[in-house]
Amino acid sequence: MMTKVAVVLSGSGFLDGAEIQESVITMLSLDRAGVSYQCMAPDIEQLHVVNHLTGEVSEGERRNVLVEAARIARTNVIDIALANPNEFDAVIFPGGYGAAKNLSDFAVKGADSTVQTDVLQFARAFAATGKPMGFVCISPTLIPHIYGADASLTIGSDADTATAINEMGGIHVNCPVEDFVVDEERRIVSTPAYMLDVRISEAATGIEKLVNKVIEMTNGK
Amino acid sequence: MMTKVAVVLSGSGFLDGAEIQESVITMLSLDRAGVSYQCMAPDIEQLHVVNHLTGEVSEGERRNVLVEAARIARTNVIDIALANPNEFDAVIFPGGYGAAKNLSDFAVKGADSTVQTDVLQFARAFAATGKPMGFVCISPTLIPHIYGADASLTIGSDADTATAINEMGGIHVNCPVEDFVVDEERRIVSTPAYMLDVRISEAATGIEKLVNKVIEMTNGK
């Protein structure tokens, strides 16, 4: 059986959804490694819509996370509420503020955040299988909610975000863009990507390494 | 001076804008080659908005091509009407229906299509400099409008599109996804990418080759 990885998207566009470049590089890295993937997202309304040219919230505009995620996935995306955790060998969360605005409310509530119900249910059920999960950019802020206290993870070196993660019970480790952090016990890999001010090729190096590490871990390593 | 390439986007999402994966792979390939790029797009309303989950037109919804392109470009995109062709060493058009719905009306009018004014003005002025241009997926349908008759190009092997291109005065050449077609006289490179039913890694192979060929041509080869 071909290895199959779930890629959890949070919309399309880094200011209100999934970071597009990180999502595409994740999919490309998986396909190049000969691994199949299935994109999924929650079928919910986005926290808001941000005009990516001005950075301003587009008042009154509404978009759906699953529908927008379909833009990155070329239509092939499923509702995470309908996904079966047992069908996958690994799960990867690309970043983008959508991970902290739609998959959770970390962008608004920080250490007091909670995770969207369908996402939390899928992720916790998957974590219970002991199979590996990868987290890119801001998405490691989901880890304490999924795994409980004392999980090691990175979002790069942003002090405020690191402090909030530690308040939630996580153990933040500083990490450069071309590297990743592994929690061997929980089988979690994380890499900062665009949490740092980097070029696309630098983000790609870290994401490819994370993807390859996650794939390696699906083989029992 | 670092080589600088204009990347012309047509929105964000392959059914009504730029093909996201092709756009990201183009940018990644340029950055990996040590070449800088500037994304640009026309500041116009999209022909329409398509729900990428259902494939249906989202009646009453309106989006702007430049604003949506900023999602792929991480905000760094300029209005093509304000871009100076003399500042660039090459131009690349990723694909997506946006190239045939927003940059031109080929998707509606086929051989009778015309190109959006700002895009045509920039592209013709750039073509007059004799510097190289690359076209991915459906965007080679712009070539006869920019270069006039007898330019060699490919959109893969779609018979109807090829016929329309030939009616416009182009010379369509069938081409597999991992290859490209060069018109040496006009210094144009084209590759089919997602005009064919392929995996992301296959599209990436062709796009990377196109990008590297275009960069090679900026060095006078």
Notes on the structure:
Two copies of one chain form a homodimer. Chain A is α/β, with parallel strands linked by helices. Chain A has one domain (4-218): Rossmann fold, CATH 3.40.50.880. Chain A is built from eight helices and nine strands. Chain A has helices spanning 20-32, 65-72, 98-101, 106-109, 117-128, 143-147, 159-167, 200-218; strands at 4-8, 36-41, 77-79, 90-93, 133-136, 152-153, 171-172, 181-183, 188-191. A seven-stranded mixed sheet of chain A has the order 3-2-1-4-5-9-8, with helices on both faces. In chain A, helix 1 (20-32) links the parallel strand 1 and strand 2 (36-41). In chain A, helix 1 (20-32) packs across helix 8. The radius of gyration of chain A is 16 Å and the shape is globular. The two termini of chain A are 18 Å apart. The relative contact order of chain A is 0.17. The model of chain A has no long low-confidence stretch (mean pLDDT 97). Chain A binds chain B through residues 12-15, 20-21, 24-25, 27-28, 31-32, 51-53, 55, 66-68, 70-75, 77, 194, 199-201, 204, and chain B through 12-15, 20-21, 24-25, 27-28, 31-32, 51-53, 55, 66-68, 70-75, 77, 194, 199-201, 204.
